[in-house]
Amino acid sequence: MPERSAFLSLPPTTQTITRSEIWLDDGSIVLEVDKVQFRVHRSVLSNHSSVFKGMFTLPSQPPDETMVEGCCVVRLDDQSRDWEALLRYIYYGPQYFRSRYDYPIEVLIASLRLGRKYEFEEFFSRAMGYLKYLFPYTYAFGEPGIDVGWVKNNIFDLVNIAEELGEMELLPVFYYWCLHHHHTLSIFGGWNRSDNTICHLSAESQYTLAIGKEKLVTAIFDKTWAWLASLRDVSPDECLSRNQCSEVRARHLEEALLIFRQSSLLLIPLLHKDKLSQGFCTYCRQYLGGTTLKREEVWKELPSYFGLPEWVYDYRRG
Ligand SMILES: [Zn+2]
Protein backbone atom coordinates (compact mmCIF):
# COMPACT_ATOMS: atom_id res chain seq x y z
CA MET A 1 0.00 0.00 0.00
CA PRO A 2 1.49 3.37 -0.91
CA GLU A 3 2.15 5.53 2.14
CA ARG A 4 0.79 9.03 2.56
CA SER A 5 4.31 10.33 2.09
CA ALA A 6 4.41 8.68 -1.33
CA PHE A 7 1.49 10.81 -2.44
CA LEU A 8 2.88 14.05 -1.12
CA SER A 9 6.55 13.73 -1.82
CA LEU A 10 6.12 14.80 -5.43
CA PRO A 11 7.21 18.44 -5.77
CA PRO A 12 4.79 20.98 -7.23
CA THR A 13 5.21 21.01 -10.97
CA THR A 14 6.47 24.14 -12.67
CA GLN A 15 4.64 23.30 -15.87
CA THR A 16 1.20 24.61 -16.72
CA ILE A 17 -1.53 22.79 -14.89
CA THR A 18 -4.77 22.07 -16.68
CA ARG A 19 -8.08 21.46 -15.02
CA SER A 20 -10.02 18.36 -15.94
CA GLU A 21 -13.73 18.48 -16.72
CA ILE A 22 -14.03 16.43 -13.57
CA TRP A 23 -14.10 19.47 -11.34
CA LEU A 24 -16.97 19.17 -8.92
CA ASP A 25 -17.86 22.46 -7.21
CA ASP A 26 -18.53 20.80 -3.89
CA GLY A 27 -15.46 18.55 -4.17
CA SER A 28 -13.26 18.37 -1.08
CA ILE A 29 -9.91 17.29 -2.50
CA VAL A 30 -7.87 18.03 -5.60
CA LEU A 31 -5.90 15.23 -7.22
CA GLU A 32 -3.01 16.41 -9.37
CA VAL A 33 -1.81 13.83 -11.85
CA ASP A 34 0.61 14.47 -14.66
CA LYS A 35 -0.19 18.23 -14.78
CA VAL A 36 -3.95 17.67 -14.68
CA GLN A 37 -6.09 18.48 -11.66
CA PHE A 38 -9.34 16.78 -10.68
CA ARG A 39 -11.62 18.14 -7.95
CA VAL A 40 -13.40 15.25 -6.32
CA HIS A 41 -14.68 14.07 -2.95
CA ARG A 42 -12.67 12.52 -0.16
CA SER A 43 -15.72 10.49 0.85
CA VAL A 44 -16.16 9.02 -2.63
CA LEU A 45 -12.50 8.02 -2.90
CA SER A 46 -12.58 6.61 0.65
CA ASN A 47 -15.68 4.55 -0.09
CA HIS A 48 -13.98 2.81 -2.99
CA SER A 49 -10.30 2.70 -2.05
CA SER A 50 -8.73 1.36 1.13
CA VAL A 51 -5.58 3.35 0.40
CA PHE A 52 -7.38 6.69 0.21
CA LYS A 53 -9.49 5.74 3.20
CA GLY A 54 -6.32 5.17 5.21
CA MET A 55 -4.75 8.35 3.89
CA PHE A 56 -7.71 10.58 4.72
CA THR A 57 -8.01 9.25 8.26
CA LEU A 58 -4.48 10.38 9.10
CA PRO A 59 -4.76 13.09 11.77
CA SER A 60 -2.94 16.09 10.38
CA GLN A 61 -1.83 17.58 7.12
CA PRO A 62 1.62 19.01 6.49
CA PRO A 63 1.68 22.79 6.99
CA ASP A 64 3.15 23.43 3.54
CA GLU A 65 0.40 21.58 1.74
CA THR A 66 -0.75 23.30 -1.46
CA MET A 67 -4.37 24.41 -1.47
CA VAL A 68 -6.63 25.12 -4.45
CA GLU A 69 -10.05 26.67 -3.85
CA GLY A 70 -9.89 25.55 -0.26
CA CYS A 71 -9.03 21.95 -1.15
CA CYS A 72 -5.77 20.17 -0.37
CA VAL A 73 -3.86 19.11 -3.45
CA VAL A 74 -2.74 15.49 -3.51
CA ARG A 75 -0.09 14.80 -6.14
CA LEU A 76 -0.07 11.33 -7.63
CA ASP A 77 2.59 9.71 -9.74
CA ASP A 78 0.28 8.18 -12.34
CA GLN A 79 -0.97 8.88 -15.84
CA SER A 80 -3.77 11.43 -16.02
CA ARG A 81 -5.66 9.45 -18.64
CA ASP A 82 -6.03 6.57 -16.16
CA TRP A 83 -7.50 8.88 -13.53
CA GLU A 84 -9.71 10.59 -16.08
CA ALA A 85 -11.19 7.22 -17.11
CA LEU A 86 -11.59 5.87 -13.59
CA LEU A 87 -13.14 9.05 -12.19
CA ARG A 88 -15.58 9.30 -15.08
CA TYR A 89 -16.55 5.73 -14.43
CA ILE A 90 -16.94 6.34 -10.69
CA TYR A 91 -18.98 9.54 -11.08
CA TYR A 92 -20.96 8.96 -14.24
CA GLY A 93 -21.25 5.18 -14.43
CA PRO A 94 -20.86 2.91 -17.45
CA GLN A 95 -23.74 4.54 -19.33
CA TYR A 96 -21.62 7.67 -19.64
CA PHE A 97 -19.48 5.95 -22.23
CA ARG A 98 -22.35 5.04 -24.53
CA SER A 99 -20.46 1.96 -25.52
CA ARG A 100 -21.96 -1.33 -26.44
CA TYR A 101 -19.49 -2.87 -24.05
CA ASP A 102 -19.66 -2.54 -20.31
CA TYR A 103 -16.07 -1.46 -20.21
CA PRO A 104 -14.32 0.76 -22.69
CA ILE A 105 -10.67 -0.25 -22.88
CA GLU A 106 -9.43 2.86 -21.02
CA VAL A 107 -11.70 2.08 -18.07
CA LEU A 108 -10.61 -1.54 -18.01
CA ILE A 109 -6.95 -0.55 -17.98
CA ALA A 110 -7.48 2.18 -15.35
CA SER A 111 -9.54 -0.15 -13.15
CA LEU A 112 -6.74 -2.69 -13.25
CA ARG A 113 -3.78 -0.34 -12.84
CA LEU A 114 -5.20 2.11 -10.30
CA GLY A 115 -7.41 -0.58 -8.77
CA ARG A 116 -4.33 -2.60 -7.88
CA LYS A 117 -2.23 0.38 -6.73
CA TYR A 118 -4.82 2.16 -4.59
CA GLU A 119 -6.92 -0.86 -3.68
CA PHE A 120 -10.08 0.10 -5.48
CA GLU A 121 -11.02 -3.48 -4.80
CA GLU A 122 -14.45 -3.57 -6.37
CA PHE A 123 -13.23 -1.96 -9.59
CA PHE A 124 -10.22 -4.22 -9.82
CA SER A 125 -12.09 -7.46 -9.30
CA ARG A 126 -14.89 -6.40 -11.61
CA ALA A 127 -12.40 -5.64 -14.38
CA MET A 128 -10.62 -8.95 -13.85
CA GLY A 129 -13.92 -10.82 -13.85
CA TYR A 130 -14.94 -9.11 -17.04
CA LEU A 131 -11.69 -10.03 -18.78
CA LYS A 132 -12.11 -13.65 -17.80
CA TYR A 133 -15.64 -13.55 -19.15
CA LEU A 134 -14.53 -11.93 -22.41
CA PHE A 135 -11.63 -14.27 -22.92
CA PRO A 136 -12.70 -17.70 -21.75
CA TYR A 137 -9.78 -19.90 -20.93
CA THR A 138 -11.76 -23.07 -21.41
CA TYR A 139 -10.93 -25.47 -24.18
CA ALA A 140 -14.56 -25.56 -25.26
CA PHE A 141 -14.53 -21.89 -26.13
CA GLY A 142 -16.39 -20.78 -29.17
CA GLU A 143 -16.38 -17.44 -30.86
CA PRO A 144 -15.79 -14.91 -28.10
CA GLY A 145 -18.84 -12.94 -27.11
CA ILE A 146 -17.16 -9.76 -28.23
CA ASP A 147 -16.55 -7.78 -31.32
CA VAL A 148 -13.50 -9.18 -33.09
CA GLY A 149 -12.46 -5.63 -34.02
CA TRP A 150 -12.42 -4.69 -30.34
CA VAL A 151 -10.19 -7.65 -29.56
CA LYS A 152 -7.85 -6.90 -32.43
CA ASN A 153 -7.54 -3.23 -31.47
CA ASN A 154 -7.02 -3.75 -27.77
CA ILE A 155 -5.28 -7.06 -27.29
CA PHE A 156 -1.77 -5.53 -27.14
CA ASP A 157 -2.85 -3.12 -24.40
CA LEU A 158 -4.34 -6.03 -22.49
CA VAL A 159 -1.14 -8.05 -22.82
CA ASN A 160 0.84 -5.08 -21.52
CA ILE A 161 -1.34 -4.48 -18.49
CA ALA A 162 -1.44 -8.20 -17.59
CA GLU A 163 2.36 -8.25 -17.83
CA GLU A 164 2.72 -5.02 -15.83
CA LEU A 165 0.54 -6.32 -13.02
CA GLY A 166 1.99 -9.83 -13.07
CA GLU A 167 -1.42 -11.36 -13.86
CA MET A 168 0.26 -14.15 -15.75
CA GLU A 169 -2.75 -16.45 -15.81
CA LEU A 170 -4.42 -14.10 -18.31
CA LEU A 171 -1.51 -14.26 -20.73
CA PRO A 172 -1.97 -17.61 -22.53
CA VAL A 173 -5.37 -16.58 -23.85
CA PHE A 174 -4.25 -13.02 -24.60
CA TYR A 175 -1.21 -14.32 -26.48
CA TYR A 176 -3.40 -16.74 -28.40
CA TRP A 177 -5.62 -13.87 -29.58
CA CYS A 178 -2.55 -11.77 -30.48
CA LEU A 179 -1.42 -14.50 -32.82
CA HIS A 180 -4.93 -15.00 -34.10
CA HIS A 181 -5.40 -11.37 -35.06
CA HIS A 182 -1.95 -9.98 -35.71
CA HIS A 183 0.84 -10.63 -38.13
CA THR A 184 4.44 -10.71 -36.98
CA LEU A 185 4.88 -7.20 -38.39
CA SER A 186 2.40 -5.74 -35.86
CA ILE A 187 3.81 -7.85 -33.07
CA PHE A 188 7.23 -6.30 -33.60
CA GLY A 189 6.21 -2.92 -35.05
CA GLY A 190 3.23 -2.11 -32.82
CA TRP A 191 -0.44 -1.48 -33.50
CA ASN A 192 -2.09 1.85 -34.28
CA ARG A 193 -4.75 2.60 -31.73
CA SER A 194 -7.90 4.44 -32.77
CA ASP A 195 -6.45 7.67 -31.29
CA ASN A 196 -3.41 7.32 -33.59
CA THR A 197 -0.99 6.43 -30.84
CA ILE A 198 0.98 3.23 -31.28
CA CYS A 199 0.78 0.40 -28.80
CA HIS A 200 4.03 -1.58 -28.61
CA LEU A 201 4.45 -4.93 -26.95
CA SER A 202 7.36 -5.46 -24.59
CA ALA A 203 10.49 -7.09 -25.98
CA GLU A 204 9.72 -10.10 -23.81
CA SER A 205 6.23 -10.49 -25.28
CA GLN A 206 7.57 -10.06 -28.81
CA TYR A 207 10.08 -12.83 -28.23
CA THR A 208 7.51 -15.05 -26.53
CA LEU A 209 5.05 -14.61 -29.39
CA ALA A 210 7.64 -15.29 -32.08
CA ILE A 211 8.68 -18.54 -30.42
CA GLY A 212 5.14 -19.39 -29.38
CA LYS A 213 3.77 -18.94 -32.87
CA GLU A 214 6.12 -21.54 -34.25
CA LYS A 215 5.23 -23.99 -31.52
CA LEU A 216 1.52 -23.37 -31.88
CA VAL A 217 1.53 -23.81 -35.66
CA THR A 218 3.43 -27.07 -35.33
CA ALA A 219 1.12 -28.32 -32.60
CA ILE A 220 -2.03 -27.41 -34.49
CA PHE A 221 -0.74 -29.13 -37.56
CA ASP A 222 0.48 -32.23 -35.76
CA LYS A 223 -2.43 -32.62 -33.45
CA THR A 224 -5.37 -31.54 -35.52
CA TRP A 225 -4.56 -32.07 -39.16
CA ALA A 226 -2.19 -35.00 -39.13
CA TRP A 227 -5.13 -37.37 -38.78
CA LEU A 228 -5.86 -36.81 -42.45
CA ALA A 229 -2.43 -38.07 -43.28
CA SER A 230 -3.12 -41.13 -41.15
CA LEU A 231 -5.68 -42.24 -43.74
CA ARG A 232 -2.74 -43.28 -45.86
CA ASP A 233 -2.51 -46.29 -43.56
CA VAL A 234 -5.98 -47.53 -44.50
CA SER A 235 -5.56 -50.53 -46.73
CA PRO A 236 -7.06 -50.08 -50.24
CA ASP A 237 -8.95 -53.32 -49.74
CA GLU A 238 -10.71 -52.02 -46.67
CA CYS A 239 -11.77 -48.60 -47.94
CA LEU A 240 -15.23 -48.93 -49.43
CA SER A 241 -14.98 -46.00 -51.80
CA ARG A 242 -11.41 -45.25 -52.62
CA ASN A 243 -11.97 -42.47 -55.12
CA GLN A 244 -14.49 -40.64 -53.00
CA CYS A 245 -12.40 -40.91 -49.83
CA SER A 246 -9.29 -39.65 -51.63
CA GLU A 247 -11.26 -36.74 -52.95
CA VAL A 248 -12.63 -35.78 -49.52
CA ARG A 249 -9.18 -36.10 -48.03
CA ALA A 250 -7.67 -33.89 -50.73
CA ARG A 251 -10.36 -31.28 -50.10
CA HIS A 252 -9.56 -31.18 -46.39
CA LEU A 253 -5.85 -30.89 -47.08
CA GLU A 254 -6.50 -28.03 -49.48
CA GLU A 255 -8.54 -26.30 -46.79
CA ALA A 256 -5.70 -26.81 -44.31
CA LEU A 257 -3.28 -25.24 -46.74
CA LEU A 258 -5.49 -22.19 -47.19
CA ILE A 259 -5.81 -21.74 -43.45
CA PHE A 260 -2.09 -21.92 -42.98
CA ARG A 261 -1.57 -19.66 -45.96
CA GLN A 262 -3.45 -16.95 -44.04
CA SER A 263 -1.44 -17.85 -40.99
CA SER A 264 -4.61 -17.72 -38.95
CA LEU A 265 -3.96 -19.93 -36.03
CA LEU A 266 -7.51 -20.94 -35.86
CA LEU A 267 -8.44 -23.70 -33.56
CA ILE A 268 -12.04 -22.71 -34.08
CA PRO A 269 -12.71 -24.14 -37.55
CA LEU A 270 -10.99 -27.35 -36.62
CA LEU A 271 -13.61 -28.25 -34.09
CA HIS A 272 -16.04 -30.62 -35.53
CA LYS A 273 -14.78 -34.04 -36.09
CA ASP A 274 -18.24 -35.17 -37.19
CA LYS A 275 -18.25 -32.54 -39.86
CA LEU A 276 -14.72 -33.35 -40.95
CA SER A 277 -15.48 -37.04 -41.29
CA GLN A 278 -18.47 -36.40 -43.52
CA GLY A 279 -18.09 -37.81 -47.01
CA PHE A 280 -15.74 -40.62 -46.04
CA CYS A 281 -16.85 -44.20 -46.39
CA THR A 282 -18.02 -45.95 -43.23
CA TYR A 283 -14.74 -47.82 -42.87
CA CYS A 284 -12.60 -44.65 -43.12
CA ARG A 285 -14.97 -42.83 -40.83
CA GLN A 286 -14.63 -45.61 -38.29
CA TYR A 287 -10.87 -45.47 -38.69
CA LEU A 288 -10.88 -41.75 -38.05
CA GLY A 289 -13.04 -42.39 -35.01
CA GLY A 290 -10.09 -44.19 -33.48
CA THR A 291 -7.86 -41.16 -33.90
CA THR A 292 -8.51 -37.96 -32.04
CA LEU A 293 -8.34 -34.44 -33.26
CA LYS A 294 -6.45 -33.55 -30.11
CA ARG A 295 -7.61 -30.00 -30.26
CA GLU A 296 -8.09 -30.15 -26.53
CA GLU A 297 -4.49 -31.20 -26.20
CA VAL A 298 -3.33 -28.08 -28.03
CA TRP A 299 -5.37 -25.96 -25.66
CA LYS A 300 -4.06 -27.84 -22.64
CA GLU A 301 -0.51 -27.19 -23.77
CA LEU A 302 -1.13 -23.57 -24.81
CA PRO A 303 0.64 -21.96 -21.82
CA SER A 304 3.72 -24.10 -22.44
CA TYR A 305 4.10 -22.75 -26.00
CA PHE A 306 4.59 -19.34 -24.40
CA GLY A 307 6.89 -20.55 -21.65
CA LEU A 308 4.19 -19.96 -19.05
CA PRO A 309 3.16 -22.21 -16.16
CA GLU A 310 0.29 -24.66 -16.66
CA TRP A 311 -3.28 -23.45 -16.45
CA VAL A 312 -4.30 -22.50 -12.96
CA TYR A 313 -7.89 -23.12 -14.03
CA ASP A 314 -9.59 -26.27 -15.10
CA TYR A 315 -9.26 -25.46 -18.76
CA ARG A 316 -11.86 -28.14 -19.63
CA ARG A 317 -14.72 -26.62 -17.76
CA GLY A 318 -13.81 -23.14 -16.71
ZN1 LIG B 1 -12.82 -44.93 -47.37
Automatic annotation (TrEMBL):
<feature type="domain" description="BTB">
    <location>
        <begin position="27"/>
        <end position="99"/>
    </location>
</feature>
<protein>
    <recommendedName>
        <fullName>BTB domain-containing protein</fullName>
    </recommendedName>
</protein>
<dbReference type="Pfam" id="PF00651">
    <property type="entry name" value="BTB"/>
</dbReference>
<dbReference type="InterPro" id="IPR011333">
    <property type="entry name" value="SKP1/BTB/POZ_sf"/>
</dbReference>
<dbReference type="InterPro" id="IPR000210">
    <property type="entry name" value="BTB/POZ_dom"/>
</dbReference>
